[in-house]
Amino acid sequence: MASQKYDVVLLDIEGTTTPISFVHDVLFPYVTNNVKQFIESRWDDPCVQAHVQALAKQAAADIAAGTDGCVAINLDDNTEAVQRQVLENIEWQMRADRKVGALKALQGYMWRFGYERGELQGVMFADAVDAVRMWSRAGRRVFIYSSGSVEAQKLIFGFSDHGNLLEYVEGHYDTRVGAKVDASSYTAIVRDIGVCPDRVLFVSDSIRELEAADKAGLQTILSVRPGNAPVGEHTFSTSSDFTQIPL
Question: Does pTM top 0.85 for this prediction?
Answer without folding.
Answer: yes
